[in-house]
Amino acid sequence: MKAATNSEVRMNNRRRLLRLLFTSGEMSKQDISLKLNMSLSTVNYLVKELMENELLTTGTQLGSTGGRKPVCIKPVNHARYSIGAEAASDVVRIVGLDLGAHIIARESYPLAQENTADYWRKLGELISEFAKKNKIPKNKLLDIGVTVGVTMQDDRVAARKEKVQEYVFDMDLARESIGMPVHFRHGTKMAAVAQCRRNESAKNFIYIYLGAKISGAIIYDGKVVDFSGINGELGCMLTLNPSDSVRVDSIFSRKILCKKAGCKNLPEFFTKVKEKDPVCTPIWHTYLEQLTLFAHDIFCLFGWPIVLGGSVSPYIGDDLAFLEEKVHEYYAFEEIPDKILSVSSLGEYGSAVGEALVSINRFFDSDI
């Protein structure tokens, strides 16, 4: 194996130092040295270099134990920004992150998705207006990414046997019409990327996306498995009832949920559920019962925690204890973790956050 050059070692140390500070926040040079197992002289050199590049600055002055008071080194979160957008079936969600992955702004705009030049032009205009409104300078913008609800494989759309309109996505048309350089990625995989950042306690878990479509991702050792491949397509799974062989998509999709209840959207549906509407309430209870069976089967396959995300997930919180209890009840073995299910704190914005995070991660992996 070829030994790394001094230049490569220095570059790797620079990346490690930046990741530490932008993830953990300000700390003293001594703490940086200990956490990275790096000599203090190397830390001093790198900090000086990164301050000159305006990525780091001085922070809190610590108490003295004798001699000069040490000063913490802190990241400059506003040094760069990233924008992620989700092109959902009936809405566009846009999120802006700073370099520390803090959400500086988020907005949603009603816009029915169409595979037309006009749709992508409008989406591009929304992104431009979002950046202008939130004062994100072009010279500090790392990248713009858009997530779509179709399965991607190696940066291309994975062809489906069923030529249903909602799975049609002309990437070339979108790129030509949107009016700016953008990346397109699978929405659920991006939501899982965002969850990896939030789920620091669990390195292995399953992410289930409950939105207009149903999908998922497998997270192993803190990373999405086969980031660019076809996997985690939970919505394509068939139910086990032989007299009713339908895909999971047709059971848990928010569009199906609203259609059954005769509601325009989720807020209307759940307002009626809270009011104990005689139509919407039993539909929601049936949904929850089916979701417990689905979550149980996924847990049987992997034995890992399950995180629920997507546009339906913010409404599950009040019923999470019920879901947990039922999964435990159905499980065949005595030994089972107390807590299996959780709801993503990112909710419906997870996909856009993950898309923006990819650009930040790549910045830290680059030759900064």
Question: What is the element layout, followed by pairings?
Answer:
Blueprint: H1 6-24, H2 29-36, H3 40-52, E1 56-61, E2 71-75, E3 81-87, E4 91-98, E5 103-110, H4 117-133, E6 141-148, E7 152-153, E8 156-157, H5 171-177, E9 183-186, H6 187-198, E10 205-210, E11 214-220, E12 223-224, H7 249-252, H8 254-261, H9 266-274, H10 280-302, E13 306-309, H11 320-330, E14 341-343, H12 350-365
Q: What key phrases describe this protein's structure?
A:
368 residues; alpha/beta; 5-stranded mixed beta sheet; globular
Would you give an account of this structure?
The protein is 40% helix and 20% strand. With 368 residues, it is α/β, with parallel strands linked by helices. It has a five-stranded mixed β-sheet with strand order 5-4-3-6-9. It has a five-stranded mixed β-sheet with strand order 12-11-10-13-14, with helices on both faces. A hairpin with a 3-residue loop joins strand 10 (205-210) and strand 11. Helix 4 (117-133) crosses helix 5 (171-177). The two termini are 25 Å apart. The model has no long low-confidence stretch (mean pLDDT 90).
